[in-house]
Write a structure and sequence with these properties.
With 103 residues, this protein is α+β, with helices and mostly antiparallel strands. It has two helices and six strands, in the order αββββββα.
Length: 103
Amino acid sequence: MAGGRTAEGVQVVPADWIVQSWQRRTNSRFSGDEYGYGWFTREIGGEQVHFGWGYGGQMLYIVPSLDLTVVMTSEESGPSARNGYRDLLHGLLADIIGTVRAA
């Protein structure tokens, strides 16, 4: 995890802000996932994952323990939670985590 730094080492986001934003402030009334400042947190594939979730299944996953960032784009044709699509995306991430661990 770069801690808010670019590849060149320039600090763009304060590292402390990242830590604070991932701390649980409440839980989602829809999924029960922990929720911080713009980030959901849950275990996926046996790892703690922080993720931003946009309309229709636009996902940004951060897996600190594996130094892994995964971005998924989707059709924005409808909500992804009600039709189970969000859970399919989480399952895909679990597969990716398994592959990264095996490498």
